[in-house]
Each structure stands twice: as structure tokens, then as C-alpha cells.
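Teaching assistant here, posting this on the class forum so everyone can see the example we discussed in section. The complex has two components, and the goal was to see what a joint structure prediction looks like when all of them are supplied at once.
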Amino acid sequence: MRKFGMKRAIVGAAIAALALNAPAAHAASATGTATAKILRQITLTNTSALQYATIISGATASTVQVTTAGVRTCNTGLTCTGTATAANFDVQGTSGAVVGISGDTTVTLNGSISGTMTSTLTYSAASLTLGATGGSFQVGGTLSVGANQPAGDYTGTFNVTADYQ
Amino acid sequence: MLRFFKGFGLLSILLLGAVTVPVQAAGDLLVAPTRVVLDGSRGTEVVLNNIGSEPATYRISLEIKRMTAVGGLDEIDEADVTPAERLALDMIAFSPRRVTLPPNQPQVIRVGVRIPEGTPPGEYRAHMLFRAVPDAAPAVAADPAKPAATGVSIALIPIYGITIPVIVRVGDLGAEATIGEAWVGDTPDGPAFNFGLTRTGNRSVYGDIEVTRPGVSEPLLVARGIAVYPEVGAREVSLRVPPELAAKLKGPVRIRYTEDREIGGGTIDEAERVVK
């Protein structure tokens, strides 16, 4: 164990200098004076937004749900138009790598004219094991629409991170 | 006819909404390497690259995360950190902390460590977060040209990023891990292969898991980058698998937990288990 610890100490300091797995499409490289080093990398790409599209509110409070598969359910009292989508994120990295997914579970949206709404958020997975072509995860949610919610464009931001252990 | 125009008005609002709200927020990113271990005073470099199609401003910060018994990483508010976690935040230095990059432009982030004299031996860890700063919110003054509508349009903008652990080891540390029971279970998202990992010692263990069937050379399952951090003595590892693989995994298997290939790939623990 002690011997191992020593070895780890030496290699640990030079960890970034080691060439390892084959580079993927977007491999990052940093150039030294004489050698090129290839680092393990991760990429995160947002390919679609979480869209509830357009909703016409009614006289009673209600909800609209978009599942992580992008299926919208428009509940009693509301009229929904447009195309709803779940947010999609692509993750690329070493094949077999386990990547954690974390993020906000609620978000507040502010109206362009007045009013606020809240949405809960659901994630398709708490962690991903990347395959040869990477992996992806989706974010859906449930939006609470008030009775006679003021019209306008509502915007909110939420945090999502892909976490390496 | 009137109804038709009303419908058309609604449609145009919808189209306007679609135009003003960017479908794809800028901020796609690449980070390499995916884990940093620092021994002593030598620093290292982490590469950040803008792989999106628009220029983006990224912020780099450190945060404390604690591992949970099921292997998740819980973010801890700066107000709630322990003295050792505070020390980790203080001893890791990095630069720059904010950078604007055109598409496909990499930036090197220098990471250094300054261990104060008298720091007790141990493993100190923070997680480095790379995240795009959202564009300044567009002025959303009420547009008088826009007809009053009964509809609301929604835009949810993700602020997304990547975290990697930055680990500082002080003193001569060691750790071992033991593989526990293994089973196939159901999660709300489908079947998963689960097993326990118990850790002893004064540092984290980190490595790759390979599950093989005795007599078959091709592994059934490979999962890389599984850690047990010092704040937990044991964790459950839950790996989602397709249903056909879940069925195959049941029965006798050999589970091997090896050190990262970067540091030699030595075996941490190996166990024969009958998967239920």
C-alpha cells in the first residue's frame, strides 16, 4: 500500500501530462514544448430547450406538464398551443465514464408585463454511464399557471451541471 | 371569419415568441481533464473550450460538494462548510475566473495549490465549476406594437456547466475499499445494477468497475470513474442498464474495482458475487 502511495504521488503530479484514452471528436489538447498531451475530456451541449410553448390561462389555476420525453399534458381550464419540447443535453466523454446530473428542482418565471409563475423540474436521470457515442439526459417540468394569469412572455433560468466524481 | 383572424393573431404571437426566445442558449463547453489531483505544491492546467457556435462568457468557480450514501454529490452552501472544506477552498488558487471565448477557442485555466504550514494530513477537495454566464437579459419592455393577448409564452433558459473534482493530498495517505452485495433493482427510469462499496482509510478511492461472467472474457459491464470520498464510509453504486443486460447480469459474476488506468490500474478489490 505504501509503495502504491509513493507511485501515486509521483504520477499524480504529472497526471495531466499523461496520454491516455484515444481522443474523441472534440479532444482537447494543450501543447508543451516538445510533446502534445491528450487529456480526458467532457463536453456538455444543450440541443433543445424546455418549451411549454404558448398557454392561454383560464378562470381557475391549473398546471401544464412536459415529461422528460417531451409529451405535454394540458390540464383542465387551460388551452395549449405550439410545440412543447423537453430540454435535451448531450454529454460526450470517455466511454464507460459515469457522470452525475444535478440541477435546480424549481424555477420562478417572471412575466414581461407582470406576474410570476413557478415550474418544478424533473430530470431523466441522476447519473449517466457514457457509451461509445456519449450519452444524453432530458429535463421536463410542471408549470403552475394561476387563475387569469397575466398575459406576456415569461422567462426563467435554471442551473444544470454534469458532475464528475 | 372573425374567429379565423383571432386564431391567426394568436399564431403570430406564438411565432413572435419563438423568434425572440433563442432555442439554443450559448454556452456549450468542453473541459479537460475530468479530475485533478494535486500533491505538494505543483500546480496543473485545465482546458476549457467553447464548443458552441456563438461567443460565450464562462465563469470558473469552486464549490463544495459532499457525497451521499447513494453516490450523489450534494452542493453545500458556503455558509455551511466545515473548517476542512473552507481550507480546501482557500488553498486552491486558479486563474482566470472569467473568460469570454469565441467559438472553438480553448483557454487554459491554471490551477495551483498553497498548503498553509501546519495543515493536518488529509485529503482536501473542492469541485471546480465551469459555467457559461447567460447573456444580459434582453429588455422586455411591454411592446406597444404587440396586440394584447390572453396567451402566455414561456422561455426557460438553462444555465449549464460541468464540475470536476480538484483534490489536494497532504501527507502520506492510504485507503482501501471492499465490494459488498450486488443486485439488480428497478429505478423509476428502468433497471439498474447495484452494489455496495465500503471504504476505509484517510483518503478517497477512485477507479473503474468491471463486471465479468466467469469463463467469459468480454465484460458484461464497464463503468469508469467511480469514487468513494472520505466523507462517506460506504456508498451504493447504482448503474442504469438496459433491460436485456439487467437479465444477463443476474447470476454469478466477478466484480473488479481497479485504480484509474492513469495511475497503473492496480486492483483495489475483487469479489465473486451472485447477483440477485
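For the discussion questions: The two ends of chain B are 66 Å apart (CA to CA). The longest helix of chain B spans residues 2-20. Think about how each of these relates to the inputs above.
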